[in-house]
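Handoff note, outgoing to incoming analyst
You'll be picking up this chain. Sequence as last confirmed:
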Amino acid sequence: MAPGRIRVLQIMHGPAAPFGELARLYAGAFDPERCELLTLFLTGAPDPELAGRFPGQVRFLGLSGRRLRGLKLGLIRYLLRLHREFPYRLVIAHRYKALYGALLAGLRLPQVRVIGVAHAFDVLERGGRRALLRLLRRRVYLLGVSGAVAADL
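Most recent structure output, in case you need it:
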């Protein structure tokens, strides 16, 4: 990595439409001179054609829906191992499961900041979600994909 470049991890639930293309658009917003990007898809099979359209690295975890329920310990362990290999400083986490995993892994990575991107209404409807975000509010920033979704946050 060139000096002064920040490492960014983008986590997306899966590559299925429209999220694969949306992840590519977000990835294109990062200046490759200033950022080194790794996009991680939690679900879905590897798609070399999709990966070839992204700047930086692309990985597919291929997790099942069952493995993404509950505490997501496998995801958290993976994110901690990934940080040893690719020491990211910023995480762009799309949707709540990615955000939850990034925040809990971030408890062991105090230098990492997280931007959570909400794509739907009522993301924070559950009390546990609000409590976690309140607890970690100094490490997380929330964005909505539209003015209406942002207002709902």
